[in-house]
Amino acid sequence: MKKLVLVLLISICGAGTAYAQFGKIAGVVTEGATGEPLPGVNVLIEGTTQGTITNVDGEYVIIGIRPGNYNVVASFIGFSRAIREDVRVNVDLTTTVDFQLAEEVFEGEEVVVVAEALAVKKDLTSSEARVTSETLDRLPVNELGQVLDVQAGITSRDGLHIRGGRSSEVTYMVDGVPVTDSYDGSAAVQLENDGIEELQVISGTFNAEYGNAMSGVINVVSKEGGSEFAGSVKAFTGSYLVFGDGGEEALRGENPEDYTVAGIQYRDVDPYSYLPVSPTHFYNGTVSLEGPILGEKLTFFALGRYFTNTGWIYGAELLNFDGTAGDASLTTMNDYEKYSWQGTLRYRLSNSIILNASTIGSVSTGDSGGGLFWRWNPNGISQYRDYGIDGRLKLTHLLSPTTFYTVDVATFYRSNYSRKFDDPLDPRYNDFTISPPDSVEVRPGEYVDVITGGVRFSRGGTDLGRFERTTRSYLAKADVSSQIGDHHLVKGGVQFRQDNLTLLGYGLIPATDESGARLEPFEPAIPNPNSSAVNQFDDVSPITISAYVQDKIEYDDFIVNAGVRLDYFDARSVVPADVEDPNIFNPLKKINRFRDTNGDGVITVDEETSGNQLTIADREAYWYKDTSAKIQFSPRLGAAYPITDDGVIHFSFGLFFQIPTLSNLFDQFGYKIPNQSGTYGPFGNP
C-alpha cells in the first residue's frame, strides 16, 4: 500500500517545480496621464529572450528568471519607451516593476528610471538572508564560511550551525540541486565566493520544495557567464603576528625548570607562543573568466583558486619518529593547501530551451593534527586528503512567460583519507606511542628518559590510525512552475537519489608470530576485520525519493505559501534478527555458537564441542533481516502580511524531519560487540 501511494504521488507531483534557483517579475503598466491600465504593452528583459505582453488589466508576469540585475523595458506604440534599470531578481521572490507610460511627444523618446532596492521583501514567509554577488565583492572575506558567519542566527564554531542546530542538520544546494554529503551532512564540494551569483540562507522553516533539513537550507546560485568578456585576478599574502610566553626556547625544551608546573614540564606554555613573521605564511590566488564562445548562443564561466597556509601551531624536531635525535628545527604541525575550480557552459538550443553543463571541485591536503602530543616529534603526525567533485546537467524549457520546467541530472564524488603512509605495512611505522622505550639516544652517548602519561609530549613514534571513506551519489530531478491566473504560482517536482558509500577505519597493531608472541622489533599489522577494532562497511547504497506540490498565493496585502512534501527512504541494508545477540562473528548465546543436534532448542554440554560449532556461513543463513522503507508526509504553510512599505508580519508552520547521516546509520556496521564488560559503540541502526 505504501509503495502504491508513493507511485501515485510521484505521478501527480511529476507535473509540478523547484523554483529554487529562479525568481519572478510582475507588475502593472498604466497610462501616465489617466492612470488607466494599458493592455498589449510589450515588457522585455534586456539581454534575454524573456518577455511578455500585458493583459486587459495592464498586468504582466514573467517567471523563470535567474537571479541578477536586469533592465526591464516597456514599449507601446504611441507612448514613450520606458526602462527600469538595475532591477534585482532574487531566488524564490517576486520583484514588482510597475510602469507609467507617457504619450510620445518626440519620436524615439525614452524614459529611464533606476530601480530602488526594497527595504522589506513582502512575500517572505520565513526567516532568511540573501547575499548578492555585488555584496560579496564588497565584503572583506575570502571564504564562503566567513560570509555565512556574519548572517543572523549562524555560528561557525566547530562547524556551521544555524539557530543552534547541529552542523549536519543543514542542506546545501547549488542551482537547486542538493550537494550535501550523505555521509556526514557536510557540503560535498567547496564553493568559492567569486563563483556565486546569489547566496540564500533559509533558517527556521522553509517551503515544501526543501527537505531533509532540520535547521536551515543554504542555496547557492552559481555564475554562468554572459555575452561580454569579463574576468578578474585576485591575490594576497600575509603573515601572523602573535606574542606569547616561551617562544623558541619553550618549543625546544630548554630551561625546563622555568616551565614546570605541578611537576609537569611545559604543560602551561602558550601553544601559539611561536609564530615567525613571514610574508608568505599564507597566500592566495584566484582567477575567473567569463564570456561568449558562439555569441549569446554559447557562453562560459570558469574559475580557479589556490590557497595555502603553512599553519599556526609549531613543533620542534627534537626527535625523529624513529626515536633518533632530530636537528631541533621548528616546523608547523597543521599545514593546509587547497585547489578549487568551477566551470559552466550555457548553450541556448533555442529562444526557449537552455542547456547548462557545470562542474565544481576541490582538493585539500594537510596535517591531521593530533594536538600538542606531537610537539617534539612533529613528523609523526598523519596527513589527510579531502577530494570532492560535482558534475551537473540542467535543461530549462521556457514554455511561456508564465510556465517553465527544468530537468537535472547530477553526480558527485567525495573521498577522504587520513594516514601517515600509503602502505599500512610500511616498515617506517613504529609503536613508541603505545610501548615507548625507557630512553632514547639524542646525541652520541647521551640518553634522555622517555616520560609518558597525560599532557606529555611524544618522544618518537608515528600515528597508527588509518581512515578512508568514499561517497558517490547519483541524482535526477524534474520540476515545473506555472503562474495560474493573477494570484497562484503553482510548482511541484520529484527527485531520485542513490548514494554509494564505503568506509574503513582502524589503528595498526603489533604483528605477532604463529604462537601469538609479538615480533621484535615492531612490525605493523592490520587488526582482524571481524573484530571491534575495525570499523568498516561497503556496498552501502540507500535510495531516497521525494516529491512536493506547492502554491504561492499572492495578493497585495496577503501572501501564502502552502504545500505538502513526501519523502521515501530505503536503507537497502540489514539488521540483526535478534537484537539481544547482534555480533555474528562472536555470538553470546550458545544456540548461536553450537548446532542444536537434537532440536530441543537448548544447547546441552554434550553439544558444546569444537566439532559442533556453527561457522559464520551457517549463521549468515538466519542472522539478518532486511530493513524496512520509511515514508513521511510533511505539510508546510507560511503567510505574510505586508503592513506598510517598510514592514511585514510573517509566520510559518511545518513538519520537518531529516534522515540521519549515513555515518550514524552504519557506524560500527556488523555490531562487533566484544564478549567482555565495558562500554562499546555507538552502533548504527539502518
Description:
With 686 residues, the chain is mainly beta. The protein is 6% helix and 44% strand. The strands form 10 sheets. Strands 17, 20, 21, 24, 25, 26, 27, 30, 31, 34, 35, 36, 39 and 40 form a 14-stranded antiparallel β-sheet that branches. Strands 3-2-5-6-9 form a 5-stranded mixed β-sheet, with no helix packed on it. β11 and β12 (161-162) form a beta hairpin. The longest helix is centred in the N-terminal third of the chain and has 12 residues, at 2-13. The protein is globular.
- Average pLDDT figure: 84
Number of helices: 6
Strand content: 35-45%
Spans of at least 5 consecutive residues whose pLDDT stays below 50 are 1-20
C-alpha-based Rg, rounded? 31 Å
Q: Quick one: how many beta strands?
A: 40
User: Can you give the helix content as a percent range?
Assistant: under 10%
Largest sheet: 14 strands, antiparallel
Strand pairing plus helix content: what structural class?
mainly beta
Straight-line N-to-C gap: 22 Å
* Principal-axis shape: globular
